[in-house]
Design goal:
The complex is a heterodimer of chains A (about 400) and B (about 140). Chain A is α/β, with parallel strands linked by helices. Chain A is built from 14 helices and 17 strands. The chains are: A alpha/beta (about 400), B alpha+beta (about 140). Chains A and B meet through helix 12 of A and helix 2 and helix 3 of B.
């Protein structure tokens, strides 16, 4: 039961059919939400309806179905715009996911603005998806990648960041919330500092869009990217938000149909925003499904969800305290509902294997953040990540299961 | 004892366990009994880096037979290694090459040797087979 009386988690759970199943003869406890979230029936139904009644290629048809679905696709763009409070819907580009969005910016922004000797700033706690595209860009342009260190609570060192900025710095790319630790980074301060030097900031929102209110105008970030599947939507769909002024100036990173205005063998002129960045047939089913997920969240209220998840985090942190020799990684005061931990002397993989047999789904390993694991001198952690449908009862089951793990391996 | 006889022995042993808990506890026990790998053999060359756990495998030829020693940083993985060593170590390259390792499936641990698990075990078995083939080729030359 949640302490938030207005938040009816049991009725929310009924919207997610997958949660009702048994795994290894135990009721499923799904705590791998930072990897992907489950889908409410509303999203599943929406996708089902597209394929049973509405499917047609968009933006090019002369016929009824095509026109109708094009309208739905553009409505989805508007839903995303309003959800993140972007100024214009043409600042919302649909992609395949966060990784795709970051690669798009790294390539396209890089082509236009990064030259030899320039500097790109990221941080030590980034997901590989927000490291490797910049590394590749730096190699391509002979630019330099600079990494802001963190402290042992898992917080970005803002002083170090400030000192790192130089006239050569061209872009800052940072995660809004850490996927491995759950730290809510002080991105307001980072953006403010970067903007004082006219440096744009990309926020990796893969772990923030589903957990807290995101207002890109208030944040004043230059780019904000996220994945549909981590926000209760279908997989293979994502969003790249970019301020109009950047998107206008940046060249397309993929070319083909849809993104063109006119093609001759002498040359091609590009379509306007956002189509310039949506080459080929877009994943319109994914985009419409993601918009449906955002509507679902809006209906439940992102603040109510955040309140519920905060309760889960505090409850879980307290319960973990009952397990001897447990270390929690990521101990910032500003955290979302992610618990990364290790039990002394027990390999994370062993812990995960036993939890699995008890019906509990967690992630184990380095969570695509190897440099962050190096910071703590570990190979990986066990990560339990909670979402809008998790309960205190499930956390009790996790606690009891971990006590059993401890007994087995000591 | 032939490889298949050994496999049957393990299958019989595991048939006594009612649930996964007993199986895992048994694997934990086996991991403790696995002879310690000589630290000098825990080289980068002998390391099989799975995404989840690490496995070290060393192979040596002794009297026409391949002798394996291995280790892992994860205990359940190490327990399964102990079983694989029991079945495959001290055999001729020909025996190993032709071995059909059905016991893993029969004792309900198949998922641990699936490509999706990335714990290093599948790569370990593949490496053992590759050693056997390489030595057999060498012997036939």
């Amino acid at each position: 039961m949640s302490h938030n009386v207005s938040y009816d988690v049991s009725s929310i759970r009924k919207d997610f059919p997958i949660l009702g199943q048994y795994v290894h003869n135990k009721p499923l406890v799904y705590l791998d939400n930072a990897a992907t979230t489950q889908k409410p029936q509303q999203v599943i139904d929406r996708i089902h309806q597209i394929y049973t009644k509405e499917n047609s290629n968009i933006h090019r048809g002369v016929h009824y179905l095509s026109n109708k679905l094009t309208e739905e696709y553009e409505n989805a763009r508007e839903t995303v715009r309003s959800f993140i409070n972007a100024r214009h819907s043409h600042e919302v580009v649909f992609t395949n996911g966060t990784t795709h969005s970051i690669n798009a910016v790294a390539y396209s922004f890089g082509e236009k603005y990064i030259a030899e000797g320039d500097e790109i700033i990221i941080t030590e706690l980034e997901h590989h998806a927000n490291i490797v595209p910049w590394q590749v860009l730096a190699e391509r342009k002979q630019a330099r990648l600079k990494v802001v260190p963190i402290n042992d609570q898992g917080e970005i060192l803002l002083d170090a960041f400030q000192r790192m900025i130089s006239p050569k710095t061209k872009i800052v790319a940072v995660s809004h919330i850490s996927n491995s630790l759950g730290t809510i980074n002080d991105v307001e301060k980072i953006i403010e500092t970067a903007h004082q030097h006219n440096i744009p900031v990309l926020l990796d929102g893969a772990q923030s869009i589903q957990h807290q209110e995101v207002d890109v105008q208030q944040l004043d970030c230059d780019f904000y990217v996220f994945s549909g599947h981590k926000v209760y939507g279908p997989n293979g769909s994502g969003v790249l938000y970019g301020k109009e002024k950047w998107l206008e100036e940046m060249p397309p990173y993929q070319t083909g149909g849809e993104m063109i205005q006119k093609v001759t063998f002498a040359g091609t002129t590009y379509n306007e925003l956002p189509f310039k960045f949506e080459a080929g047939t877009p994943n319109y089913v994914g985009a419409i499904g993601t918009a449906e997920a955002l509507k679902y969240i809006r209906e439940k209220g992102i603040r109510a969800i955040a309140g519920h998840e905060e309760d889960l985090l505090h409850y879980a942190t307290a319960q973990m305290g009952e397990i001897p020799d447990i270390t929690i990684y990521g101990t910032s005061n500003r955290k979302i509902s992610v618990l990364s931990f290790l039990i002394k002397g027990i390999h994370h993989y062993d812990t995960g294997m036993v939890l699995d047999k008890m019906g509990i789904a967690v992630r184990t390993g380095h969570h695509c953040t190897e440099p962050l694991m190096n910071h703590f001198g570990i190979e990986g952690t066990v990560r339990a990540s909670f979402a809008m449908y998790n309960t205190r009862d499930e956390i009790d089951r996790l606690r009891d299961a971990l006590i059993k793990v401890k007994q087995m391996f000591s | 004892m032939t490889i298949d006889k050994k496999q049957q022995e393990i299958i019989d042993e595991f048939s006594m366990f009612d649930d996964w808990m007993d199986k895992y506890n048994y694997l934990i026990e086996l991991s403790k009994d696995l002879p310690e790998m000589d630290p000098k053999n825990k080289t980068d060359e002998n390391l099989i880096e799975g995404c989840q756990s690490k496995v070290w495998l060393n192979a040596e030829m002794q009297d026409e037979k391949l002798v394996f020693s291995a280790d892992s940083d994860a205990i359940i993985t190490k327990g399964i290694i102990a079983l694989l060593i029991e079945v495959l170590s001290g055999r001729t390259p020909g025996e190993i090459k032709d071995a059909n390792l059905y016991f893993i499936d029969e004792i309900g641990l198949k998922e641990n040797l699936s490509p999706t698990r990335s714990n290093g075990l599948l790569a370990m078995v593949n490496k053992i087979k590759a050693y056997a083939m390489a030595y057999e080729l060498k012997q036939n030359q």
